[in-house]
Amino acid sequence: MNLLLFSLAYIMTLNLTGFLICGIDKSRAKKGRWRISEGALLLVGLCGGCFGLLLGMSVFRHKTKHLKFKILAPLECVLWAVIAIHIVSALTLDRQIQYLEVSYPSSRVSEALDGYTIAFVTDTHALPAEELREVTDRINEYEPDILHLGGDLPSLGDAPVRSMEILSRVQTSDGIYGVEGNHDNWGELFAVMEKYGIIPLSNNGVFVREQFYLAGVEDMWNRSPDIAKATQNAGDDDFVLLLSHNPDVTMKQNTTNVDLVLSGHTHGGYVTLFGFFAPALAWSKDITEYGQHFMSGWAKSRDAADVFVGNGTGYLTVMPRVFARPQVILITLEHV
After folding, report:
1. 111 with 84, same domain?
2. I want to staple 307 with a disulfide (CB 3.0 to 4.6 A). Which of 253, 261, 293, 324 is the partner?
3. Are residues 283 and 153 in the same domain?
């Protein structure tokens, strides 16, 4: 809220300045006195005072016949309208966790699994304990059959203990399973998981129910994920779900025996343009080698397996999310 108030104060101050200097410059022009340069007027607009500048141009009938101002002042307003929308979104909506309900219809889903609900939590990062408790309570309202944890869970100090204790309160019929992320100390995390009855998956898998095989792989940045090893005990008629923190592994290894992959890691692009373009993903390979392919939501692996990438449930302390809301994913399997 303090950031929102600061942003509003900044924009209001700059626009008031833009309006006033336009009037001052008009007054000085009439009196033949020293003028404010056109560059300075446009710079105030570019820094955020464009709406005040444009209003001043209209009210004081100043610079309205100058082509430079007729073009640049409105363009500055468009730019700052976009910036303002993103600031407001980052400080309001993008701090509210979205509980995204997704259906997954497939002929590979058996009749017995029709309506089966999977809760998926990943990338909790700096999410405070009290907010994680709210997440746990909200997930319980959906009465999921199973909870999957996608890695990058709090890993500083006693955070793994605290977060696993809280997440272990999710009530399911088939348990809670998780994999490590690139920010996790996997040995410590797995030990804490086991302490609270959460089953870690590390290049291995288990039959959750008849014809439902759940596999999980190690993080590809810190260790050696092996999809073949993780899924080796699954049969041809089994529905195979793979947990992999980093979705990139599905482009590097064979996924022909996998039906559905759940991943996180990319945070929905974190800072995006209206949720459609994420510069950090498009222009850098520090997060993913595949640009925006695994930005958020549905994608395909190298072998056309379905991959769902969640935005993550938490946030980083160094920057706000921008049009990349934190999420808890609730996937309902459908037999077709």
Report:
1. no
2. 261
3. yes
pTM above 0.70, yes or no: yes
From residue 103, alpha-carbon distances to 56, 99, 115, 116, 331 in Å are 53, 13, 9, 10, 6
What gap in Å lies between CA 49 and CA 26, rounded to an integer? 17
How many domains in the chain?
A: 2
Domain of 271, CATH number, reads 3.60.21.10
**Beta-carbon contacts of residue 223 (< 8 Å; ≥ 6 apart):** 180, 186
| pLDDT tens, position by position, 195-232 | 999 999 999 999 999 999 999 999 999 999 999 999 99
Q: Which amino acid is at 292?
A: Q
Q: 3-state DSSP call for residue 145?
A: coil
Buried b (16+ CB within 10 A) or exposed e, 269-281: bbbbeebeebebb
Q: Which of 40, 66, 91 is the last residue of a domain?
A: 91
DSSP-based three-state secondary structure for 226: coil
Tell me: the pLDDT tens digits for 20-53? 999 999 999 888 888 899 999 999 999 999 999 9
